[in-house]
Amino acid sequence: MTSPGTLAVATRGLRKSYGSRLALDGLDLSVPSGVVYGFLGPNGAGKTTTMRLLTGLLHPDAGSIELLGQPFRRGDRRRLFEVGALVESPSFYPYLSGRQNLRALAAAGASVSAGRIDELLELVGLRERAKDKVSGYSLGMKQRLGIAGALLSDPKLLLLDEPANGLDPAGIVAMRETLRRLAAAGKTVFVSSHLLAEVQVLADVIGIIAAGRLVREGSLEALLTDQGVVRVRVGREQADATRAALDGIAPEIAVAGGGVEVWLTVHVEPSRAAEVNRRLAEAGIYASGLEAGTDLEPLFLELTGGGASAEGTMQGIAR
Amino acid sequence: MRIFVSGLRKLVGRPASFVSVGLLVGLLGLIIIASATVAQRSESPNAGARALALVTFPGAYDLILSFMLGFGGLVAVIYGAAIAGSEWGWGTLKNAVARGESRTRYVLGTFAAIVVMVAAGLALTFVLGVGIALVGASLAGVSTAGLTDADTLARLPALAARGWFSVVEQAALGFAIATLARSQLAGIGAGIAFYFGEGFASIFLPDIIKYMPFSVARAAVDTGATGGGIGGGGLTQALAPDTALLLVAAWLVGSLVVAVGFTERAEITG
Question: N- to C-terminal Cα distance for chain B?
């Protein structure tokens, strides 16, 4: 656990209800400064509620929030001058252009330096379309404009809710590079998402929330240490023989896939992929595919109680 | 100040601003041209004379003002509701709050921009209305000598100021209703319902309704030509104009207090 002095976001016992429905049930987040923090959780786990609380849109029923080392209570709105946020879907005036929308946004909150808007339009690749009305923008363009809006005041802390939403592959890569660059410059990037693969390549630290409570938090590297897998693709008729050949190498071997070929997932360190391959060769089994790596998904599903859907996801991977 | 200037920029480019003024000018133009045509072609001397009076200056000023401050009040309710409601519906209020902007300042800055737009809209409608009335006078073949009638021109500024203030109060009501509804459509619908509902209720409760926002707005600009206005209220025993003006101010302030108070306390989830 990072010491409180270096936390960009700290929540303690955060609770929030909507009527009788409890959205957050004592959330304790510790987001270190200068990292990309991946905030993961299934739908309805409380991610967006947390984002709303961190941006002053909602007020907690109980608990406390600290932003950039300072308490953030009702009335402490100036604390948000150092925070940039994109909460839920990006919101704009449809009849104004991209540039006019950013100008309107810049009129609120912290002051924005001259030339910043053009700089950001360039950064998010909207310079050419800056004069077009936002009503004509695609979802991905609105998302990029939203990210530009979040960066307006050159914030120390960036809170982004599903930032990859609607972006094309090139846009996702560009966004990822931008966010990594911001973190390298000492800023803290808090990304809420349910795209595990995206968070896995982007985040330094992750927090997993389920049913309004934090169920795991820590560096991605440490969390993935126990999540190594080697996947083997073989013909369906060879599945049993493959399982037998790998018997004893891992406590559990999962089989997934409904076609001519199946995937066997072996929970071992990725560095043992060669050993897996050797055992298969010794048994006279030649795999048509072999992958080694770490995967956040099993951990996520285990922690969030998503076991029922885990099988479906694995089958999806196999296909 | 930044919020006000930004709000003004937003409203200048907003289709609702053009549509509102266009609606006022268009309908006013139709009434004037129709009056001029009736005056020219009517076989009934009484109908012809009444129509002629509407396009003859200085009487035409009364028609223009009566229309602007009557139908203009309804347009203002809708306009105020559209602006406030869209801030919630489009999520743009959320953006400002998440940037650390004061909710109170944002609401008041936005409304201040509406106040200026209402003034500009009324001024434009008046100028275009006078221009159309001149065309109408020409069509009806009447003199336009009354255009520069000294008595009428002398009372116009005070009446225009009262009218503007009353229309602003009605815009504030729409603004507050849409804020409470957190929705553009619901705000507009409720605003229109209140507007006509008040006129209807004046049939049964005249002594109470005369203190209500739309009735006091009409009473404050009682030029002797505005009648019951579009929303009715003709059955209500109107208050004295100066008393009504005080109540207009009270309703205006009250509406803004409601809008600010609600926004300050609101949990923004949209």
Answer: 26
Residue B260: Cβ within 10 Å count: 19
The pTM score is: 0.83
The amino acid occupying position B75 is: V
Interchain pair B90, A94: CB under 8 A? yes
* Alpha-carbon span B259 to A246, nearest angstrom: 69
Q: Is residue A265 within a helix (H) or strand (E), and if so which, with residue range?
A: strand A261-266
CA gap A10, B73 in Å, rounded: 50
Chain A residues in contact with B9 (beta carbon < 8 A)? 100, 103-104
Beta carbons of B3 and A107 less than 8 angstroms apart: yes
- Give bridge partners of residue A254 from the DSSP assignment: A265
Is residue A240 within 8 A of residue A258, CB to CB? The reply is no
**Contact residues on chain B for A147, CB-CB shorter than 8 A:** none
DSSP B30: H
Do residue A105 and residue B96 have CB atoms under 8 angstroms apart?
yes
Burial A108-137 (b: 16+ CB within 10 A, else e): bbbebeeebbeebbebbebeebbeebbeeb
Distances (CA, A) of B146 to B49, B53, B69, B159: 16, 11, 22, 18
Three-state secondary structure call for residue A136: helix
Among B8, B99, B110, pick the best mutation site for testing chain A contact (most A Cβ within 10 A): B99
- Please check whether residue B50 touches A, CB under 8 A: no
Q: What is the pLDDT of residues A272-291, one digit of tens each?
A: 889 999 999 999 999 999 88
Looking at the complex, report in whole angstroms how far the Cα of residue A101 sits from the nearest Cα belonging to chain B: 9
Q: Give counts: helices (H), strands (E), chain B.
A: 11, 0
Which ipTM did the prediction report? 0.85
**Beta-carbon contacts of residue A184 (< 8 Å; ≥ 6 apart):** none
User: pLDDT by residue for chain B (270 residues), tens digit each?
Assistant: 899 999 999 999 899 999 999 999 999 999 988 888 887 777 777 777 777 777 788 888 888 888 888 889 999 999 999 999 999 988 889 999 999 999 999 999 999 999 999 999 999 999 999 999 999 888 888 888 888 888 888 888 888 899 999 999 999 999 999 999 998 898 899 889 988 998 888 888 888 888 999 999 888 887 554 444 444 444 456 788 889 999 999 999 999 999 999 999 999 886
Sequence spans of domains, chain B: 2-265
> Which of B14, B91, B97 has the CB atom closest to A95's CB atom?
B14
